Amino acid sequence: MRRADRKQMRKKSIHPCQSTDKDVIKEAHAENLMTNLSNAYASDLLPSKEGKDLTKCFLLQVVNILLHYIEKTFDDKSKILDFHHPHQLLEGLDGFDLELSDHPESLEQLLVDCTDTLKYGVKTGHPRYFNQLSSGLDVIGLAGEWLTATANTNMFTYEIAPVFTVMETVLLKKMCGIIGWRETEADGIFSPGGSISNLYGILVARYKQYPEIKARGMAVLPCIVLFVSEQGHYSIKKAAATLGIGTDNVIEVKCDERGKMIPAELEENILQAKRKGQTPFCVVATAGSTVFGAFDPLHDIADICETHKLWMHVDAAWGGGLLLSRKHSCRLSGIERADSVTWNPHKLMGVPLQCSALLTREKGLLGACNQMQAEYLFQPDKVYNINFDTGDKTIQCGRHVDVFKLWLMWKAKGTYGFEVQIDRYMELAKYFYKVLKKKDNFKLVFDAEPEFTNVCFWYFPPRLKHIPKSFERDQELQKIAPKIKAQMIVEGTAMLSYQPCGDKVNFFRMVFSNPATRQTDVDYLIDEIQRLGKDL
């Protein structure tokens, strides 16, 4: 089928503009605009002099496409994805061509491309999407993201982002207060994801101990080392590589059987590093590890950091949201003793990607560490309070507005609304755990109840169920999770993650952070794993 024919067929699936005015002339005008989309181009939209009506019609069509997608996202009978291999997307699918032309394409074709982009993507808000720590689709957050894109401003000065920079200050104070810090003394910044927030934490930790690093570089420093649990996020090593510390100078501390850092091992690693002539400067504790959902013992780690005068950074990118739950916040007891914290609202709190904050207990440290006082941006004699020109606290210049969607969701839910949502995830995790525990063809990685929403498990097909543990059996078990996951993706029925860890062969990792998920979706997933795996 020729592309023009396909385009004509696809045009029928695009909803016409809806007019609230029944006037025949206006309806005819709207219909005429629709017909003209095939001959209209981006240059005909606003700010083109006659572009107002066409712009309205085009954007209403885009909204119709998005609303249709949102409805499908929340329909548990719809597929999570229409899977195709990369080479198929590159070659083109049913008129969906990713190649870029030297000549403009019509607005009608752009609408078709918008539809296809969503069609071949993953519905991360689907009730049976469990693949990542960030999932779900919050409609208020989505509205916030739309408004943010419409405003299209930069977060470096109050001058060009007056409302957003003040919102950021309000949110940072709120989050610091929830951690347990005095709001007037704490500080922070929103950044492009937890990896960058962790990098900021290590950056300010190094600056606090060695302020000369900013001007003179690593050459004037001793051989500095930092510590993180062996279950800590890989972004810590990335940060060390980026900052010139080196991955060899990230010392991984042994964990117990549940994936928590062992304080005695940390103490020994610090003493051993000192005996080798190395200089410890920072410990990264984890509050909610990526795979096991483990919480390091923060009070014990804080005691050790105080004894050795080390900076304590807590990576609570995943677990930070639990601070909003009066029932479960005890898992982060001791976080108030940290010097810096990473917290990702785009994970447990369900804020649309991306939304991450680095919070520091000492006010002014981010600015001292990062400011370069660019004269064309940060003039000292502006008409307003320049304390709200926050851009010099960051390593970026251009910075996306990530705060408005969080602020709007907080307005919509209130702190207690987030609490209800998070408590429900914890109940779902407990339910899933209890169901699996009763099934003889599933085996939990940990026998005890989950501490967080992570539930790790193996599925044993009938042929492996009664075979005693051995190297040969584990070699076969290693293949099961990838095969089931592959079939799930091909059929588009569900998505969840798997991985090996240490001496444990591939196992599934279930996480709950999707507000659309119900118990029926959990039951469906269990049945689906058995259906796809029983003959493997």
Q: What does this protein structure show overall?
A:
- With 536 residues, this protein is α/β, with parallel strands linked by helices.
- It contains 17 helices and 12 strands.
- It has helices at 3-11, 24-36, 52-73, 86-91, 107-119, 139-151, 162-179, 194-209, 213-216, 235-242, 263-275, 298-308, 365-370, 403-437, 462-465, 471-491, 519-533; strands at residues 129-130, 187-191, 224-229, 250-253, 279-286, 311-316, 340-343, 356-360, 442-444, 455-459, 495-501, 504-510.
- It has a 7-stranded mixed beta sheet, sandwiched between helices. Strands 1-11-12-10-9 form a 5-stranded mixed beta sheet.
- It is globular and about 80 Å long.
Mean pLDDT: 93
Q: Report the end-to-end length measured between terminal Cα atoms.
A: 39 Å
Strand proportion: 5-15%
- Radius of gyration using CA atoms only: 26 Å
The low-confidence parts are 9-16
Task: Classify the helix fraction into a percent range.
Answer: 40-55%
What's the story with the biggest beta sheet? 7 strands, mixed
Query: Shape from CA axes?
Result: globular
Query: Could you spell the SSE succession in H and E letters?
Result: HHHHHEHHEHHEHEHEHEEEHHEEHHEEH
InterPro entries: PyrdxlP-dep_de-COase (IPR002129), PyrdxlP-dep_Trfase (IPR015424), PyrdxlP-dep_Trfase_major (IPR015421), Pyridoxal-P_BS (IPR021115)
GO molecular function: glutamate decarboxylase activity; pyridoxal phosphate binding
Modified residues (N6-(pyridoxal phosphate)lysine): 347
Organism: Bos mutus grunniens
